[in-house]
Design a protein that fits this description.
By secondary structure, this protein is an alpha/beta fold. The protein has helices at residues 2-19, 47-62, 107-120, 163-170, 188-193, 215-222, 229-241, 260-273, 299-305, 310-323, 354-362, 369-381, and strands spanning 35-41, 71-77, 83-88, 91-97, 126-131, 150-153, 159-161, 175-181, 198-203, 251-256, 297-298, 324-329, 332-333, 337-338, 346-347. A hairpin with a 5-residue loop joins strand 6 and strand 7.
Length: 385
């Protein structure tokens, strides 16, 4: 009887060991606290800076920057076969190659990369850095008025992704933050298009120097349990603020996206009252060079210049104070553009006459959601549209 009992126990134990074997199915991937994806389109004049930034990311990883089990992925599109890479303390690992991708600036490709991010690096929280050239809500070309752009891609003839397309590609995702390591993305039109997709945005309302942000300093900020976005923005600003000559050029802001609807409402209320700027108004431009000079102006200075109504001004300023939670600006951009009135976010100014409306329409401005919700209702109320 004892021998039979020992044999029975042995069989039960063997069965349990087989049943619990790892060979029964695929290994369950451990979720990280946060996965950060850098979507890098460097198939352009910024290629060498992309290589430098990868080295900075690797330095950060080796110095303990990947805190709290964080994972740092890079979708790397440099003109050859795109790859999804992971930056680790031990080096750079290729997770996937995309032999069949013909363009990295399409909605379908970006959605595909987002799906791969979820599958290969599941996390409790996701964040996104957009890395490339950009020209804000619009590419300043009358011959291509709909081509509002992010991500110049030389191998496809200079293809770019419009801001509405970017929002479409990311719709359904949720990021704790987005950091735009590219020019002119701190404009209210782009930010408004992305509401609901991300909790916070870090961006510049002006150009940024080609070096971009210092990843060796900022990666650690991104992987704090609560992302230290003000710290990352401060690192970027300080990096340029100590430069000399024209290279001492930087604007950077952090936006609380939960407050952007208040800014829209306050701006619309001002514009419903008045659209005509004072005769002595001199706009604070953010655009440098002929292509951008008349596209980007300081939103705060513009809106507050439209009204003397203290209640409307207070409503607007309160909304802006809650929305722009951090901002810095050097005295000049490239030693040529003085930054005197800086609320931290830019806006296009549609002049309240037939020529201004026609030009805005030609640039595709009236296709933007900010225009739908703020500008068009105000212009319609004044019987201008």
């Amino acid at each position: 009887y004892i021998m039979k009992l020992k044999l029975l126990l042995s069989l039960i134990i063997s069965f349990c060991l087989v049943s619990c074997s790892d060979d029964d199915g695929p290994e369950v991937k451990k979720e990280s606290s946060r996965t950060l994806l850098v979507y890098m389109v460097s198939d352009n004049s910024l290629y060498s800076f992309g290589e430098s930034d990868l080295k900075e990311m690797l330095t950060a990883a080796r110095n303990g920057g990947l805190k709290n089990d964080g994972r740092l992925l890079v979708y790397y599109a440099s003109g050859v076969t795109p790859e999804l890479r992971e930056i680790t303390p031990d080096g750079i690992v290729t997770l996937k190659t995309y032999d069949d991708v013909t363009s990295s600036v399409t909605v379908s490709t970006m959605r595909r990369v987002m799906a791969d991010m979820h599958q290969l690096a599941p996390a409790n929280d996701y964040a996104l850095v957009m890395w490339s050239h950009s020209s804000g809500w619009l590419k300043p070309s009358v011959s291509a008025p709909q081509n509002r752009s992010w991500g110049v891609e030389n191998s496809t003839g200079g293809a770019e992704m419009s801001i509405p397309e970017l929002a479409d590609a990311l719709r359904g995702e949720h990021f704790s933050f987005m950091y735009f390591d590219c020019c002119y993305m701190g404009n209210i039109e782009t930010l408004y298009e992305l509401r609901g997709i991300t909790d916070y945005v870090v961006a510049s309302p002006t150009e940024i120097p080609s070096d971009g942000m210092p990843y060796n300093l900022n990666v650690g900020c991104f992987f704090e349990l609560v992302p230290d976005l003000k710290g990352a923005a401060r690192n970027t600003f300080d990096y340029y603020d100590v430069q000399s000559g024209k290279y001492r050029s930087c604007t950077i802001s952090v936006y609380d996206m939960s407050k952007i609807d208040r800014v829209a409402k306050a701006t619309r209320n001002i514009m419903l009252e008045n659209l005509i700027l004072p005769a002595d108004y001199t706009p604070q431009g953010y655009g440098v060079g002929n292509k951008f000079r008349d596209k980007y102006y300081d939103l705060g200075y513009y809106a507050l210049s439209l009204t003397d109504n203290a209640s409307l001004q207070s409503e607007f300023q309160s909304a802006m104070d809650d929305f722009v939670i951090y901002k810095e600006a050097t005295d000049y951009m490239w030693n040529s553009l003085k930054l005197e009135h800086c609320s931290g976010v830019s806006s296009y100014i549609v002049k309240a006459d037939d020529e201004g409306i026609s030009k805005a329409d030609n640039y595709g401005y009236f296709d933007l959601e900010w225009s739908d919700d703020v500008v068009i209702p105000a212009f319609s109320a004044h019987s201008l549209m």
